[in-house]
Amino acid sequence: MSIVLSIDDTALYTHVVQLLALIGQNPSDQPHPGCLEITDRMRSVRSEHAVVRLGVDICLPEDDEVLLSLIDQALSATARAPILCVVGACGRAGVTSTVIRLVSQYRGDHPLTIVDLSDDPLFPARLEVCAKPPRILTWEAIDSERGSALTRLGTESIAIVSAAQAPPPFHPAEWIATVQHRGPVLVDAGRCSPAIAAMIRQLDAFTYLCCRHASRAQIEAAVTRLQMDSQRIFIPARPPRNAWADRARWIRRGGDQRLVALLASGESDG
User: Measuring CA to CA, which residue among 16, 22, 18 is closest to residue 36?
Assistant: First the structure.
């Protein structure tokens, strides 16, 4: 969804442009079907697109947070970047190492959001090896700024971690869905537990199943827990020979390059 400004007041126009810059949005000036128009012109609300009337629906700068919230809701409802959850078929399957590699290789046009659901206390430090380390935020800070403040994350890549290796203070799937419009989301989901599998299904995410040190039984159990469309599951391009020798046609095979391309594609349906 694009944002269109039809604002005659110069000071008001500048103020809105500055607000949009905080969230990485560049407005246009030509309304079209499906856009979100912000205007100070007296007009009917009947339109082929959503309209926010300044001075009628909201008043700026008092309602800056309201405007950001409305924009966030509009973007969240229309834009769906891909979500990739990296999970392990067993413990120490190489999940975090895989996530760090993908972050290092990502060169997409949109900011990457990395979500840490593992129990690795060194996760933030390991991100420092990336050429352009993401900005680190904690679940605790996000919990205190829920709502329109999430829109102000801007255009930089971010990583959400736990300050005390404790579970997030709220259901992470809800938060992940609210930032999906920013760009792709990469989740270090740790071991494929029933709770993690349920979250992945709720998000309709792509899944990369790490198989290092996993037995065939462990991999089959993880796939069973996921209960997903087979076209949304990836396994390593070269799985360990002793892990899963069978060529299951319902599992997509992909390496780092394929996964990075998926993240950079901006397409949630692959």
Answer: 16
